[in-house]
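Figure 6 in text form: structure in, sequence out.
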């Protein structure tokens, strides 16, 4: 048997060898990779195929300015290839690139509308299985095709992926839903629930990028796109609206139509579910504070008598947005409010009876909208500078 001192020396030798030999076996230098910022997925030209479009930047590259000076911004390239699987198409792109494609910095996955309506189940396996795809990356839908949106914007935005990522943040602040990849997968598999994604489009006139709606998914298929007002209603109901949301309320004041813009703050919402005689009922409850940011028409509403008119206007604007979203969701039979998930958690035995026909039940069930708000302030002035009856 080896003496204790010999065992210690052997152990130290093995540990030293392990430290020397240890390394990243698949390490690739930054000079040898091309970083993907945007991944576009569309239906291929042949049945049961996919078109993959990658926006790639060279981390060691440079671009020339209009004056001929060399800048430090990376140059971007967009390449599309088709395949029977996502990985097969990516490998086809790799054959056209002299550096290793790196997906670890991917900012957003963009689905084309046609593929989303056909179903995206075939693309999700690789996105979940590949270790470089982060669950915190953004995901969205492109009007028409992801490739067309990406290519139309490639000359406007130096790095489209970073622009899309920043735009999702601004969209959520102004009344849209921004969904991370991991959350999207969770919502797809929750009992009875639908998932939502922001919808992007490019403006051919000025080359701008815009969030134009919210896509509603049942299982893995896109069933409809909420417009701007309905998208705001979805965001309010889910409690994900940001601090930049502005809604316009209207009212009749002494025979005159009044419009007012309200900035919403401290928005809190929840969905309450219950059973009455075995029938599911739901209520969407929203509480918030508002600030009068703009008024067109009317007089001085800061009096005790008329203050309630302003609060009623902002409450009704929220109610209208949520009701518009509820009506459209019930028309599509897509529970984007996760009512079914809450029923399953609170009434698991009853849910077993409801689950099979949940889409039809959701389409017909009573969904109440309750809103409570407080108007905090009206800005630096009390009434419009010019108003009917005062200016002659």
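Output sequence:
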């Amino acid at each position: 048997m080896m003496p204790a001192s010999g065992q210690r020396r052997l152990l130290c030798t093995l540990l030293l060898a392990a430290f020397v030999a240890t390394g990243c076996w698949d390490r690739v230098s930054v000079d040898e990779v091309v970083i993907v910022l945007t991944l576009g997925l569309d239906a291929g030209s042949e049945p049961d195929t996919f078109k993959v479009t990658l926006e790639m930047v060279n981390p060691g590259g440079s671009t020339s300015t209009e004056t001929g000076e060399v800048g430090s911004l990376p140059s971007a390239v967009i390449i599309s290839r088709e395949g029977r699987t996502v990985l097969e198409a990516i490998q086809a792109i790799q054959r056209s690139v002299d550096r290793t494609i790196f997906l670890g910095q991917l900012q957003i996955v963009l689905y084309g509308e046609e593929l989303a309506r056909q179903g995206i189940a075939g693309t999700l396996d690789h996105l979940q299985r590949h270790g470089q795809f982060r669950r915190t990356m953004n995901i969205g839908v492109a009007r028409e095709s992801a490739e067309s949106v990406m290519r139309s914007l490639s000359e406007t935005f130096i790095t489209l992926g970073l622009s899309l990522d920043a735009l999702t943040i601004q969209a959520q602040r102004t009344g849209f839903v921004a969904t991370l990849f991991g959350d999207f997968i969770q919502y797809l598999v929750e009992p009875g629930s639908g998932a939502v994604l922001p919808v992007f489009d490019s403006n051919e006139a000025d080359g701008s990028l815009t969030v134009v709606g919210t896509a509603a998914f049942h299982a893995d298929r896109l069933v409809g796109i909420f417009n701007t007002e309905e998208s705001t209603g979805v965001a309010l109901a889910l409690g994900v609206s940001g601090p930049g949301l502005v809604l316009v309320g209207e009212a009749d004041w002494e025979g005159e139509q009044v419009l007012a813009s309200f900035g919403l703050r401290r928005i809190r919402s929840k969905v309450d579910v219950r059973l009455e005689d075995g029938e599911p009922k739901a209520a969407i409850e929203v509480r918030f504070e508002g600030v009068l940011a703009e008024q067109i028409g009317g007089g001085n509403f800061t009096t005790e008598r008329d203050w309630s008119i302003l609060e009623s206007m902002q409450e009704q604007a929220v109610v209208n947005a949520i009701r518009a979203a509820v009506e459209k969701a019930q028309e599509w039979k897509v529970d984007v409010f996760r009512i079914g998930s809450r029923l399953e958690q609170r009434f698991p035995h009853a849910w077993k009876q409801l689950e099979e026909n949940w889409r039809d039940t959701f389409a017909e069930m009573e969904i109440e909208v309750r809103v409570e708000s407080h108007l905090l302030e009206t800005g630096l002035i009390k009434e419009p500078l010019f108003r009917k009856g005062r200016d002659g």
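Caption detail: The chain has a mean pLDDT of 84.
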